[in-house]
């Protein structure tokens, strides 16, 4: 899971910004540039990104309006957004966060900081996904314990086998979290 190449959309009407972002991120991620919100929505028709970098100021549709449209669509509302902007006013930034943005990166950006912030956000998203998977085996264990306590004693060996299977599944998920944590520690210099 941690080794699969993540998909990042970069949406900016400035071709120079698109090229800069692509050059910074392409070695690490699969990048899909779009010069407008319209192009982003076309891409969403056949590709689901793990993250969208979205310029706030664009001529056709603003990044904030594009985010509103994105969040109103059940299929796309959970796609994480990071806004890019040359604007530095707190009102615009607050509006971006109120629209559900993970972050707000000011342009011009430093390449190593942009890459690090994207790495951090994608790692946190992966952690959340794995942590949410822990609930399934725990719920299964609880259900089987409830059934075992009121069920036919002859079925007890089956319940124990199912409990062992769920516990093994839970342990595998925890091992994945620890592996990701180790990878994160190594990539961040052990900090």
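Sequence proposed for the structure above (191 residues):
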């Amino acid at each position: 899971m941690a080794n699969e190449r993540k998909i990042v959309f970069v949406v900016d009407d400035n071709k120079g910004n698109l090229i800069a972002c692509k050059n910074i991120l392409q070695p690490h991620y699969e990048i899909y540039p779009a010069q407008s919100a319209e192009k982003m929505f076309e891409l969403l028709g056949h590709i689901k990104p793990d993250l969208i970098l979205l310029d706030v100021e664009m001529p056709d549709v603003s990044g904030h309006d594009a985010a509103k449209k994105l969040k109103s669509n059940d299929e796309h509302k959970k796609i994480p957004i990071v806004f890019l902007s040359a604007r530095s006013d707190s009102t615009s930034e607050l509006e971006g966060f109120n629209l559900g943005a993970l972050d707000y990166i000011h342009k011009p950006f430093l390449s190593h900081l942009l890459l690090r912030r994207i790495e951090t956000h994608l790692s946190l998203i992966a952690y959340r996904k794995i942590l949410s998977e822990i609930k399934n085996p725990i719920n299964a264990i609880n259900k089987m314990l409830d059934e075992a306590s009121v069920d036919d004693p002859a079925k007890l060996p089956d319940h124990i086998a199912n409990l062992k299977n769920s516990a093994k599944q839970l342990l595998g998920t925890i091992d994945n979290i620890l592996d990701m944590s180790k990878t994160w520690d190594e990539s961040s210099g052990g900090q």
